[in-house]
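Ticket reopened. Same input as before:
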Amino acid sequence: MIDFRGVTITYPGARQPALRDVTLHIPEGELCLVVGRTGVGKSTLLGAINGLVPHFTGGALAGRVTVAGLDTRTHPPRELAGVVGVVMQDPVYGFVTDTVEEELAYGMEQLAVPAAVMRKRVEETLDLLSLAHLRRRSLHSLSGGQQQRVAIGSVLTAHPRVLVLDEPTSALDPAAAEDVLAALTRLVHDLGVTVVLAEHRLERVIEYADMLVSVDSLGRVTAGKPGAMMRVSDVAPPVVRLGQAVGWDPLPLSVRDARRRGGDLRAQLQRCATPEEPVVAEPRTVLHARRLVVRYGDVIAVAGVDLDVHAGQVLALMGRNGSGKTSLLWALQGSGARHGGSVTVDANGDAEDADPSRLTPAEARTRVGLVPQSPGDLLYLATVDNECDLADSQSQRPPGTCRAILDRIVPSVDGDAHPRDLSEGQRLALALAVQLCPRPSVVMLDEPTRGLDESAKVRFAEVIAELATQGQAIVVATHDVEFVASVADRVVVLAEGEIVADGPTADVVVASPVFAPQVAKVMHPARWLTVAQVTAAVAAEGVR
Amino acid sequence: MGRSTKAGPHVTQRLPRPLHPGAWWLWALGMATAVSRTTNPLTLVVFAAAVGCVVSFRRTEAPWARGFGTYLRLGLLVVAIRVVFRMLLGGQYGTTVLFTLPELHLPDATAGVRIGGAVSLEGILAAVYDGVRLATLLICLGAANVLANPKRLLKSLPAALHEMGVAVTVALTVAPQLVESGQRIRRARKLRGAARRGNGLVKGILIPVLEDALDRSLVLAAAMDSRGYGRRADQPRGVRVVTATLVLTGVAGVCVGTYGVLDGTTPRVLGGPMLAAGCLVAIVGIRVGGRRVLRSVYRPDPWGAAEWMVAACGLAAAAAMFIASSVDPSNLYPTLQPLRWPTLAALPAIGALIGAMPALLAPPVDLGQASSVSRDVAVAS
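Engineering reply: fixed in the latest deploy. New output:
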């Protein structure tokens, strides 16, 4: 269906090609997963399928890309619109109209599909993706998962034979991601659509993939069956790493496979004590919130939340999209809206406890530092060094403080680089360094792992753990259950603005069908959360 | 037996559906043209009532349909402003002096301009008459805005203007996005503790917002390109030149013709005939240009009997006032010297009555559908 023959793509001004001599055949009706670290040519590979690369982005293409027999050299993206459907990383940015029904019809209008056929296809697609009850809704009032499904539907109505998706689930909560993936597998199984998707969250997707394409940092591509590819891959979901660690063959790709294989392991580890959370004798509470309320018009985002945050503890805030996590963070920080309740925050040392919303923004950030969902919003100067200097002077710390913090998080960031040119991980590190600079009592991060690849995420988890051991109080709002399992001491689950669960990570996530990490699902009912815990226990058992 | 046949297939109940926005606009423009032909406050009030009646019968719950009150208030404001200015600045005539304001004596160079002084009933009435005419015009156009779905109107643009329509639609969605990213970045700036102004504001907010907008528009352009936007059949250069010439000439003709129709003093030829000729030329141009665009429209608004009737009502109202202005002009422009009560003549009253008929002729609105939209908007906001 999709053929790359000796394809090399070089962007103007780039020192090395983004893709190097790629020869690849993706057969019809396959679900093909593209993996690789951020910044390698994954998006280039996806863009080349419908000719956006190089027709839209510029650059030189050597070799030949054909889709359903059409050469992208002679067919620009708009001519391929009926053959290849593309769903962008952030579906909201790609919406042209403003209601669900019109968005579904837009592509067909461009292709001059007759009105009667359009009407029929819109109804079919509404049913296929379970969107019928949303048909007249405004696109911007939908949740993230619904928007993603509308984006898929809007390209599907043109009846493409290939569907290309860039990170379709990275912004979604676990349940919404399941919905989107269920829709995709249905397309592959029932309609024979060829699906090519790039995704960092391997643990969500890999069990559905028929084929894995891995792009390395030189732009070379290897392809194969997921089971075989996982044996050599440097990125792998927890079930695969668990399988590697305990030597299962073939490697399990899904929780179900691993559970079937895991009977012996579970029996073996039943005798070991599950890892206990280190109990802090008398945790110092640095932030008290009582009866916190945030509302937007009739919608109550945060409904009377009581929360204490302790020094040296990593608190993960979980809950579906729209459950009030972000509103809660901003209200705690003091610069967001707050319509009731009280917040008091310790100062580090000298000053008295205070309500951050009564302080000036400059004072509030010495109590609570917040890294928003898009960390780039915090950065607006031309170079990394300028940002660091400004952070030092704004927080009245000796020059070089911010840079030192940054170097501790990620070493060797180029000081002359523009913040927009940094990788996602580096940009997050810089924003975090800027917010840590005034030594806030609490630092809060909103969805920090979005856009981070596996290795950046591991490094980031280490940074968070290190900060916590130094006594920093940390609050992380996130959907990423694996990240939570590896880093959080305590989990708070929000639903409809209320706290529905609050306790040590293992207590909250192990029994939860949505928030349990893969290892916990495999080892259920024992309380193991990460591969590292399991391998340590297995090693100890072996020694004994 | 007789009863059952009556309730049978002969009486087809009209299904609720939105009327074609073009029909609402034609009706509203007809009413506005009619109103522009008179200063008789009684006639104007009757026309405004007719428009208000149609709006209250046929408006939906959609967000754009809630603004009629604003147009009414705007109309009252126009009248008030006119009266106040007339009282303060001279231009007083007539003998019925109501009261005298303290007068400001200006140097001789500004002869003819008087500030303050005697305020006459005739002067105030003249201001009121003029103001009411302007207010009624505003109400007519406001009614079109309230009744017609602006997006559907853009959708029913002819194919040749489709790209313009898409540009407007995209611009309409970009404006709220800019506001949103401005707010997001301003909030982020607060997180850094900065409350600087001036240069910092430009650097810290404006540039990131513009960068954001640029990023978004690139993504949108890529998305539109990969969804087939801009596919077109090739056309020789000659045809394109002819198309452009036809459309531009036609639009110029429409402009001159509109002016001729609205201004009673221009020669008759420059009125109706010019308007008709301009429309014809523009339509031919748009038809020729539309052939190069290959696209179709999802659920197009039909133009049926109801649309014809609603549009005809507006045009009939305008025609009634045209005839009235040649039969009895003194009724349409009531005299103030000597002061006399204005009267409502039969012909303008009939015109207004016809103008009110869309309240019944237009198909009923689907409140179930509309209320789901409004609920949605309430949740989103």
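Chain B touches chain A through 51 residues (CB under 8 Å). Confidence is low (pLDDT under 50) at residues 1-11, 370-381 of chain B. Please confirm and we'll close it.
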